[in-house]
Amino acid sequence: xxxxxxxxxxxxxxxxxxxxxxxxxxxxxxxxxxxxxxxxxxxxxxxxxxxxxxxxxxxxxxxxxxxxxxxxxxxxxxxxxxxxxxxxxxxxxxxxxxxxxxxxxxxxxxxxxxxxxxxxxxxxxxxxxxxxxxxxxxxxxxxxxxxxxxxxxxxxxxxxxxxxxxxxxxxxxxxxxxxxxxxxxxxxxxxxxxxxxxxxxxxxxxxxxxxxxxxxxxxxxxxxxxxxxxxxxxxxxxxxxxxxxxxxxxxxxxxxxxxxxxxxxxxxxxxxxxxxxxxxxxxxxxxxxxxxxxxxxxxxxxxxxxxxxxxxxxxxxxxxxxxxxxxxxxxxxxxxxxxxxxxxxxxxxxxxxxxxxxxxxxxxxxxxxxxxxxxxxxxxxxxxxxxxxxxxxxxxxxxxxxxxxxxxxxxxxxxxxxxxxxxxxxxxxxxxxxxxxxxxxxxxxxxxxxxxxxxxxxxxxxxxxxxxxxxxxxxxxxxxxxxxxxxxxxxxxxxxxxxxxxxxxxxxxxxxxxxxxxxxxxxxxxxxxxxxxxxxxxxxxxxxxxxxxxxxxxxxxxxxxxxxxxxxxxxxxxxxxxxxxxxxxxxxxxxxxxxxxxxxxxxxxxxxxxxxxxxxxxxxxxxxxxxxxxxxxxxxxxxxxxxxxxxxxxxxxxxxxxxxxxxxxxxxxxxxxxxxxxxxxxxxxxxxxxxxxxxxxxxxxxxxxxxxxxxxxxxxxxxxxxxxxxxxxxxxxxxxxxxxxxxxxxxxxxxxxxxxxxxxxxxxxxxxxxxxxxxxxxxxxx
Length: 782
Prior knowledge:
The chain is α+β, with helices and mostly antiparallel strands.
């Protein structure tokens, strides 16, 4: 029984249980592993965006003392299979991507050969000693150019750079919507390519036990279970002899939601050399050869009435997929189409998404994965419509919100939003921001000649990735709860947290529902020999789906414990009451039984009721019937320096609704981290390739990330609209900050520049880009 004087654990702002080992530096990451006989791998990567591989000479590398082996595609590809893509897109043209290049490379960073040595520095020296003759070929790096006739082909055998054309269409007739419109508003928007840049680059250690024919692979991954499902098809080790361990992961953001070539390559090398093999990615490798995000460009048309009613939206958007397909590459841009209408009732939609190959690294899921793109699009477009029609930005949003009573709400994109109160979140954000005062302050600043702006973003996102019918490889989640004989509790989850804090939030849920001290609960994850099943962590699904599986387990344990208590009370289960860790039978006996006695009876098993098995453990698969749809409103105030183009965020208000808050401290941390990603995207970050496909932003010297001084203080609030989808009523929060923030900041900057007649800037709105725009407008008015 736990002390309830301070209230339940759920809803309490508790520091994370997992933090002490992290802040003390005593946690274990992949690079911390030191196995006996460990060998080190270093990969030689292509300096060309597109070239034939004419000859590879490895003799000099092999001759270096300490080198164990040097391998090319000809040596390993037949044993390592193809890098998998799990996205099922109709008529998808997919190249066959091997773990090392064959006779052709098609992006800078393409792995060509690998050197293995007793020391990582020797391995790197050996990789640099490999000589490769390349015959350079024309490259294409602009996705819009790539679809034109005569453009260089990223994959000549596919005969086109177009990988797929996918259409999201729904609601009323789109052509009729445009015929009824008083005017058509057009706008072109670009969502730039980004590099995720986690603190910890990728890393792999593989160890093979030839006696058992078993392989253990440690990887800095978000998806140990999906890796265990897909890797056997590459390397030939059966799933039941394959163990995947994800230790501490120093940042994922979707970049580690993948099965990468290096995981199969290290596994093969460990089996081939009969020794454990480690590969740790360098920062430049990470920038060039770990997935990129975003990179969509499109022309958007809105059919509107003069009163501001939006009748329809249509677009042809080109998504730059890079040079090949990772796990979800083609699926990500289709998510943009699914949530294109955002929080709004828009009767007709048609979005044509064209996936295009270029000679760049593959794009894939990056924090929000398709939903930030959609929110940026619709929120920028709402501001554009409001400006062109002379309508207040807030009022046009309110005009198109569905009412809370209309939920579940069917969108014209084909989704059913679970629950929502968009008006409530907007009202709370305006109240926290002191909106009327902000308007007055902006007017005063402008009267004084300053560039001051306000931005608003009302967003909804699709989360709790789960319904199996909508997922490539199942969307259920598995969990296990075991009450030990000592009355301590072990929780095992198939999700794989790496910063989301579920060791804490799951312990809070379990401690409350079982009535035990949180100190008695241990949460295990990230090891497929411990957590036998799972679908891992992405799309803000961990607690909504994985936590629901844990709740199912608890219900089973309590039900069994009631039967045991009823037997001890000499009554029936329906007379047994369970509360705060204590079983009683009011009206039958004054006796009370706690978990210690129940657990002892369950495991000693000398006095069990007929038909009841020993032990006190339950496992469950939870299959959600729908996604969840968190929402919120972000409001931003900025000042822009006329002389430097520097943007200063002077106020940031975020009101998010993720359903009930299990741990407000963790929720706020997730939102703050997400906003930081958006500050980077709007003001600093862009992955740049030159016309020859050379990556120009491969290091922190060239790829600008926000620093501590760039992050403002936040005013944070929440509304609570429970979801009917899962037993916890929660929706997910991990990507909300990124999804809501990008358009809010961009709208604020453009609002500041509007008095100069500047109505659009592409992302990122760097000081140079803003200054150039100011300079151009100032020169035009002189």
